[in-house]
UniProtKB/TrEMBL annotation:
<dbReference type="GO" id="GO:0016887">
    <property type="term" value="F:ATP hydrolysis activity"/>
</dbReference>
<comment type="function">
    <text>Molecular chaperone. Has ATPase activity.</text>
</comment>
<keyword id="KW-0963">Cytoplasm</keyword>
<dbReference type="InterPro" id="IPR036890">
    <property type="entry name" value="HATPase_C_sf"/>
</dbReference>
<feature type="region of interest" description="A; substrate-binding">
    <location>
        <begin position="1"/>
        <end position="337"/>
    </location>
</feature>
<feature type="region of interest" description="C">
    <location>
        <begin position="552"/>
        <end position="624"/>
    </location>
</feature>
<dbReference type="InterPro" id="IPR020575">
    <property type="entry name" value="Hsp90_N"/>
</dbReference>
<feature type="binding site">
    <location>
        <position position="40"/>
    </location>
    <ligand>
        <name>ATP</name>
    </ligand>
</feature>
<feature type="binding site">
    <location>
        <position position="176"/>
    </location>
    <ligand>
        <name>ATP</name>
    </ligand>
</feature>
<comment type="subunit">
    <text>Homodimer.</text>
</comment>
<feature type="binding site">
    <location>
        <position position="81"/>
    </location>
    <ligand>
        <name>ATP</name>
    </ligand>
</feature>
<dbReference type="InterPro" id="IPR001404">
    <property type="entry name" value="Hsp90_fam"/>
</dbReference>
<feature type="binding site">
    <location>
        <position position="94"/>
    </location>
    <ligand>
        <name>ATP</name>
    </ligand>
</feature>
<keyword id="KW-0346">Stress response</keyword>
<feature type="binding site">
    <location>
        <position position="36"/>
    </location>
    <ligand>
        <name>ATP</name>
    </ligand>
</feature>
<dbReference type="GO" id="GO:0140662">
    <property type="term" value="F:ATP-dependent protein folding chaperone"/>
</dbReference>
<feature type="binding site">
    <location>
        <begin position="101"/>
        <end position="102"/>
    </location>
    <ligand>
        <name>ATP</name>
    </ligand>
</feature>
Length: 624
């Protein structure tokens, strides 16, 4: 009796969860399993070709193929390739678990809407598991090229439940065969025309021939018929490519179910020759903002030979949302990521492509306002990084920024710097901005009062990156940026002059008392000509760290000295008039402390000792 050599394994817990999710959530798009398996086969062939060209594998007359056999009798589809194959360890790592550090976060943040689940799954590159949407059982037979001298390969088998089996089998040639035993409800995939239409839809561009076995009734023989065109789409003339073909190529390339906002396709000839087909997605993938995830969505080909994914050497980090293909004749086939990083040709291509992309995005902003709004909503936060990262292109990057402001009166960022300058006050020489913790805090800040009164617009910034960005963005079109919560004598003279303010002896005494009582917290106390509704405001020195930056430092555990402000008061405000009338020292001190805490709360959004502030308020209320 033959001994059972099958080894039983349990799926990784996240894999179990994902399998369940796919089987029950992707039913409406079940045909993608064909696309995913062909994509995997193509990757295996590309790895094989790369290793041959880089002399890691010695093989002559290699002719790649992806072949599909439909067996109606057994309700089975077999997709085979003669790619690099897998070892036992690789098949366990590739099929038994999801080798992705973000998987747990991905699963914990899944939306309830099934339409969004499809997109997320694609982003994680776990397409093999889509076979379980349509199958009862999946069997994978594989043999790695390094084990070609052996007569054995590996069999992997699962029904998509909690376990899978591995067995040593006889296998003559390297490559992988995936056998899908269909559920009774999925026999539509046993029709030749169905499989052909799916290949045409998703995989027509795959360079390896995708062949389907057909039976000739007349000759009573089987033959292989190539289904795909097998041409690299990016190498075709733009005039020969339809809009639908561009969109389907993008979806196949990225596994994104959404259509891209736009794309750019061009061939550069000269000292360095290369072709690029680049897309701007319409949706932000959840992990692109993760500081640990700096991967680009660019695939590198050399002379139409696939070299590597996630190539970040040809795009600056702030353009990492761009997806697409770069194909060049100017680099050696066996180039590594490390050599790419320090390669002079790489840098020249990067500089040119970056300028082309920025010019393309600029044209998009001019020609299609609706699409640009989508672009900015999805990628504006990442794009802002370019102000600091790419000084060479800072001017055009700045022109593509969008802001909220007093005049737009909306949290939606739609105002460009060029439009701001066009609408500037006739005496205005600077671009005014305010940074706050959130839009609500910015739009209601007392700093805005005099600007609203004089109909002067102010940019309202409230994203974490804004403080850092504005340290690098100092001018635009010869206009200097000015933070309105910092002292600026030039602006004071232009906009804050009020001849009706009389500095009486009582006001002078109050200013003296404020400076004495708050000497640990403020530099000086002054009369404000910028307040119309609030009793007091805090201003920092032009060279000091802002309140917002102080909070950002605190969040990272960094300790820096507390800011010493200038406290400005509004002598026309009823609260200031009330404090002026208080002569009892102890009571006056309480009111001044409360005034400062109130201004500090407005400026920073929080207090170091809120309980002390509450007790002071309560005490003053009781004494009323």
């Amino acid at each position: 009796m033959k001994k059972n050599t099958k080894e039983k394994y349990q799926f990784q817990s996240e894999t179990k969860q994902l399998l369940h999710l796919m089987i029950h959530s992707l039913y409406s798009n079940k045909e993608i399993f064909i696309r995913e398996l062909i994509s995997n086969a193509s990757d295996a062939i590309n790895k094989m070709k790369f290793n041959i060209l880089s002399n890691k594998i010695h093989k002559t007359n290699y002719k790649e193929y992806i072949r599909i056999i439909i067996n109606k009798k057994e309700k089975k589809i077999v997709i085979s390739d003669n790619g690099i194959g897998m070892t036992k360890d690789e098949i366990i790592n590739n099929l038994g678990m999801i080798a992705n550090s973000g998987t747990k976060k991905f699963l914990s943040e899944l939306p309830k809407e099934h339409s969004k689940i499809n997109q997320l799954i694609g982003n994680f590159g776990v397409g093999f598991y889509s076979t379980f949407i349509v199958s009862q059982t999946v069997i994978v037979k594989t043999k790695h090229i390094d084990e070609q001298e052996s007569n054995y390969g590996v069999l992997w088998e699962s029904q998509g439940q909690g376990e899978y089996f591995i067995e040593k089998i006889k296998k003559e040639n390297h490559g992988t065969d995936v056998e899908i035993y269909l559920k009774e409800t999925e026999i539509e995939f046993l029709e030749d025309w169905k499989i052909k239409s799916i290949i045409k839809k998703y995989s027509d561009h795959i360079s390896a021939p995708i062949e389907i076995q057909e039976y000739n009734q007349k000759n009573k023989t089987f033959s292989w018929i190539q289904v795909n065109k097998g041409k690299a789409l990016w190498k075709l003339k733009k005039t020969d490519i339809t809009k639908n073909e561009y969109q389907e190529f993008y979806k196949n390339l990225t596994n994104d179910i959404h259509e891209p906002i736009s794309w750019m396709h061009s061939t550069i000839e000269g000292t360095y020759e290369y072709t690029y087909l680049l897309y701007i997605p319409s949706k932000l993938t959840w992990n692109i903002l993760d500081p640990e995830n700096k991967k680009s969505g660019l695939k590198l080909y050399i002379k139409k030979i696939y070299i590597m994914d996630d190539v970040n050497q040809f795009l600056p980090n702030y353009l990492r949302f761009i997806k697409g293909v770069l194909d060049t004749n100017s680099l050696p086939i066996n180039i590594s990521r490390e050599i790419l990083q320090n390669n002079n040709i790489t840098q020249k291509i990067k500089n040119t492509i970056t300028k082309k992309i920025l010019k393309f995005i600029h044209q998009l902003s001019l020609n299609d306002d609706q699409k640009y709004k989508i672009f900015w909503k999805e990628f504006g936060l990442i794009f802002k990084e370019g102000i600091a990262e790419d000084i060479q292109n800072q001017e055009i990057i700045a022109s593509l920024l969008r802001f909220s402001s007093i005049q737009t009166n909306s949290e939606q960022q739609t105002l460009s710097l060029e439009t701001y300058i066009q609408n500037m006050h006739e005496k205005q020489k600077k671009i005014y901005f305010l940074i706050a913790e959130n839009y609500e805090a910015a739009s209601t800040s007392p700093h805005l009062e005099i600007f609203r009164k004089n109909n002067i617009d102010v940019l309202l910034l409230s994203e974490r990156i804004d403080e850092w960005m504005m340290n690098y963005l100092t001018t635009f079109k010869n206009k200097t940026f000015q933070s309105i919560n910092k002292i600026d004598q030039e602006s004071e003279k232009l906009f804050y002059t009020d001849q009706n303010i009389k500095i009486t002896t009582k006001i002078k005494t109050l200013l003296h008392d404020i400076e004495e009582i708050l000497k640990k917290n403020i530099i000086s106390a002054q009369i404000s000509q910028r307040l119309t509704e609030s009793p007091a405001i805090l201003l920092s020195d032009k060279n000091s760290v802002s309140s917002h930056m102080l909070k950002l430092f605190a969040a990272t555990g960094k300790k820096i000295p507390a800011i010493k402000y200038t406290l400005q008061i509004n002598p026309k405000h009823p609260l200031i008039k009330k404090i002026i009338q208080i002569t009892e020292i102890k009571k006056r001190k309480l009111w001044i402390q409360m005034l400062f805490d109130q201004a500090l709360l407005s400026e920073q959004g929080s207090l170091k000792n809120p309980n002390h502030f509450i007790k002071t308020i309560n005490k003053l209320l009781i004494e009323q």
